[in-house]
Amino acid sequence: xxxxxxxxxxxxxxxxxxxxxxxxxxxxxxxxxxxxxxxxxxxxxxxxxxxxxxxxxxxxxxxxxxxxxxxxxxxxxxxxxxxxxxxxxxxxxxxxxxxxxxxxxxxxxxxxxxxxxxxxxxxxxxxxxxxxxxxxxxxxxxxxxxxxxxxxxxxxxxxxxxxxxxxxxxxxxxxxxxxxxxxx
Length: 184
Known about the structure:
By secondary structure, this protein is mostly beta strands. The chain contains three helices and eleven strands, in the order E-E-E-H-E-E-E-E-H-H-E-E-E-E. The model is unreliable at 1-18 (pLDDT under 50).
């Protein structure tokens, strides 16, 4: 029997022979979970950064929650969503030149308020959730050439990154780091 483009495999969608985990399941992963126990296939991009599917990534560490190398690793530190692999390389590895400029909507499961994707809506949504320590900042590739990487809104739940150097409250994120600390 031929597989359709979005067939199911053990509760996961299959698209173009790639198993896609649903974000509603990914956000339930506990921080410091051994990645090998998650029943997720992933591919190493660079040290610490691993690809699950086209827009889903794991940040993994050889260290456990006590910051010691331990059997059973690597361990999950966070999830990443990005518009493309080039975008995640920009956001996490500072490889600005790899960003292809792709724009897609992020999943509602990692937004403060579903259906609200802009800089302003994210900031307002985080405040409505009562997030503490909300920080707006910009990142630059200082050690190499001082190039602008992105502007970000950071909170206890996530880091939302935006490509445009100039402030634009209608811009949507190109990458999101989802912290798993809420699900310990």
